[in-house]
TrEMBL record:
This is PaaI family thioesterase. It holds the Pfam family 4HBT_3. It comes from Cupriavidus lacunae. Residues 67-135 form the Acyl-CoA thioesterase-like N-terminal HotDog domain. InterPro entries: HotDog_dom_sf, PAAI_dom, TesB_ACOT8-like_N. SUPFAM superfamilies: Thioesterase/thiol ester dehydrase-isomerase. It comes from the Bacteria. One of its GO terms (molecular function) is thiolester hydrolase activity.
Length: 140
């Protein structure tokens, strides 16, 4: 069952996505809240490059933070939100401008804390991984 929450309203176009989604070129491709998975597409712009011509690690980290938090957000009740408490990143190879694919898997969903694993792929190669701990809270 899909919850009626901010995430579903965003996917239906009833509310705008966060501005960071536009910056990262984020687009949710698939979400399965029962299985605890989400897939998203991203676009690394030339403006994301470091002096070596590679996508700056912070931008890859932002994509991983986005994909893991989006998955948690998809599971929330209406009026709840999540904040990233911890994000551990491992960079495996350099990224280049162009499309990337983000994958997230929910490892544990507690009442107030969620553990999520994220991956970022480009050209069928794993670029970076993340483990995220997110806090769930109600809006005041």
């Amino acid at each position: 069952m899909t919850p009626d929450n901010y995430f579903t309203r965003m996917r239906c176009g009833e509310v705008p996505p966060p501005a960071v989604c536009g910056l990262l070129g984020a687009e949710v491709r698939a979400v399965d809240t029962e299985a605890g998975t989400l897939e998203a597409a991203y676009v690394a712009q030339d403006t994301f490059l470091n002096p070596a011509g590679q996508v700056q690690g912070g931008m890859l980290g932002a994509m991983l933070d986005d994909v893991t938090a989006m998955l948690v957000t998809a599971t929330l009740a209406d009026g709840e939100f999540c904040s990233t408490l911890n994000l551990n990143l491992s960079f495996l190879r350099p990224g280049k401008p162009g499309p990337l694919q983000g994958h997230a898997r929910l490892e544990r969903r507690g009442r107030s804390v969620c553990n999520v694993v994220g991956q970022l792929w480009q050209d069928d190669q794993l670029l970076a991984t993340a483990t995220a701990t997110c806090m769930v809270a109600r809006r005041a």
